[in-house]
Write a structure and sequence with these properties.
There is one protein chain. With 69 residues, the protein is mainly β. It is 0% helix and 61% strand. The strands form two sheets. A four-stranded antiparallel sheet has the order 2-3-4-5, with no helix packed on it. β6 and β7 form a beta hairpin. The protein is globular and about 30 Å long.
Length: 69
């Protein structure tokens, strides 16, 4: 099962919760078209990916699909 991180493109910073992982914080960098996602629970982990709908990435071994609205 793949988790989903749903973001609003117009909101450059926010938080979200994904079952099994916990709380995430994200920040969109419009000038580069990238988004930084940081896992806030347990040992912090982060990744920076292209901010496009459907992009898949992984945190702590769990695959997450980015949903941009």
């Amino acid at each position: 099962m793949m988790g989903e991180l749903v973001i609003k493109k117009g909101k450059t910073r926010d938080t979200a919760t994904i079952a099994g992982l916990g709380m995430l914080a994200y920040r969109i960098f419009p000038e580069t078209g990238r988004i930084n996602v940081q896992l806030l629970s347990g040992e912090q982990e982060e990744c920076t990916i292209v901010c496009e709908d459907g992009v898949a990435f992984s945190l702590r071994g769990e695959v997450i699909r980015l949903v941009v609205k």
